[in-house]
Amino acid sequence: MQHNIPVDRLGPNGSAMASAVKSCVHCGFCLPACPTYQVLGQEMDSPRGRILLMKNVLEGTLSVQEAQPFVDRCLGCMACTTACPPDVPYGDLLILFRSYAENNRANGSILDTWLRQIVLEIMPYPARFRAAMLLGMFARSFKAVLPKKLATILDLLPSDVPTSNHIPDIIPAIGRKRARVALMQGCVQSVLAPAINEATVRVLSKNGVEVVIPRGQGCCGALTLHSGSLEKSRKLALRNLRVFPTDVDAVLTTAAGCGSGISEYEMLFNSTDDLTIARDFANRVQDVTVFLDELGLSHLPGPINLKKVAYHDACHLSHAQGVRDAPRRLMEQVPDVEVVNPSDGETCCGSAGIYNIEQPEIAEQLGARKAAKVIETGASVLVTTNIGCITQIESHLRVMNNKMPVMHVMEMLDNSYE
Ligand code: SF4
Ligand code: SF4
Questions:
Q1: Do 201 and 270 fall within a single domain?
Q2: Looking at ligand 1, which residue's alpha carbon is closest to its atom 2?
Q3: What digits encode the pLDDT tens for the residues 341-356?
Q4: Owning domain of residue 12
Q5: Which of 88, 186, 337, 394 is deepest in the core (most CB within 10 A)?
């Protein structure tokens, strides 16, 4: 296939986009792995189709507006990258293309524009997000008269906003100090499920890890990055680059989406003065399950009242960061627990950051399918590593009248220490 992408006219990211497009050999191995291709069944909603659309836009033979609906429907789940033999950097291409297209974005409906603003201006800020959640819970009473898209989003809200307990700035290691880490609390997770960070701190401390909670930290920028807002993401990331200490063994995340977003910092800060500091920071960031698995549990878990536990691979941990075994190895140390996998383990649950807000119909289909596969395992609890997956699968289990608890790996370990 011939390529005529005018790299020089596309700014600093032109050559990265052109090289990603050129690396696709159109073999189609990614198609069966792609959730939107599975649901919609058309080439343009597959990774190969989207790469061709992006190529045509970059070459100037197709307008952004024509390609936009297909690119917008991409979950960014990265299942295609796992399936791709020549390792096309599809994730980088998607983010850079979305950023390029942002300025030429067609004006959507007022509702779509408003929802986009929620993502960019509310979700990354815990205080604003908490207020929006309370408003949303109130608005649920008027669901019947609201647009369907908005009503579907309100269904995702939990029945209440949990209260969070204050976590001190430094939590000492219990017993011999084996490591010192800084914990990234996350924006959405700190509001929707503060218990995850509280459990994480207890588990780390019991395993001889001193935990520092840097004050002034905020959103890592992943939500806005995956929407193509590079400028906004850099602003959010810079705040963390300034407040996180360097005298720690690792910076830990408890949300797969954050870890995945931070692993993109090299691309985000490419050609900026902050590239070195951003790259150093990203190199110190680890998912908490990877860190604990490598360190080893010094405090062995005790039995819990569970026999069969299903583990859901969050796409941003498995496909985007290649982490599959560490969480399972930790869970398997809880006595008498069998860890089982839903049969469609490689497929996204439809949460994908803000996807269930922007594309609720497809997200609903994927969420329902995932909940059914989880129920099929016969497990009594579902464990995962990402707040988006927890919210999405839990809400679909409830729609199916299933009361299965859904929790983070750290919460399961914490329970086993009680
Ligand atoms: S598997 Fe990779 S190379 Fe093959 S069509 Fe998909 S993106 Fe292109
Ligand atoms: S990121 Fe996910 S939804 Fe998007 S093209 Fe790849 S597999 Fe399909």
A1: yes
A2: 84
A3: 999 999 999 987 778 7
A4: 7-102
A5: 186
User: What average pLDDT does the chain have?
Assistant: 92
Is residue 359 classed exposed, middle or buried when 0-12, 13-18 and 19+ CB atoms within 10 A define those classes?
A: buried
Give the CATH number for residue 398.
Answer: 3.40.50.1860
Report the nearest atom of ligand 1 relative to the CA of 46: 6
Cβ atoms of residues 98 and 227 within 8 Å: yes
Examine the fold and report which residue of 156, 191, 223 is the final residue of a domain before the chain moves on: 156
Same domain (yes/no): 279, 309:
no
Based on the fold, state whether residues 188 and 270 are members of the same structural domain. Answer: yes
- Ligand 1, atom 6: closest residue by C-alpha: 30
Return the pLDDT at 102. Answer: 82
What are 338's strand-pairing partners? 308
At 8-28, the pLDDT tens digits run: 989 889 999 999 999 999 999
Ligand nearest to the CA of 72: 2
15 and 128 in a single domain? The answer is no
Helical spans, DSSP H, in 264-408: 265-268, 275-284, 288-295, 315-318, 325-331, 355-358, 360-376, 387-399
- 33 and 67 part of one domain: yes
In-domain check, residue 259:
yes
Residue 66 tokens read as 């024509």
The predicted structure's pLDDT at residue 106: 62
Does position 146 have pLDDT exceeding 80, yes or no?
Answer: no
**What 3-state DSSP class applies to 177?**
coil
Residue 306 and residue 246 in one domain? no
d(CA 158, CA 2): 50
Q: Which two tokens stand for residue 271?
A: 């050609």
Asked if the model's pLDDT at residue 43 lies above 80, the reply is: yes
In a domain, 162, yes or no: no
**Same structural domain for residues 151 and 179?**
no
Output the ligand 2 site: residues, CB below 6 A.
Answer: 33-36, 47, 50, 74-80, 90
Q: Given pLDDT bands bounded at 50, 70 and 90, which one contains residue 107?
A: low
- Residue given tokens 């299942």 in the structure block: 79
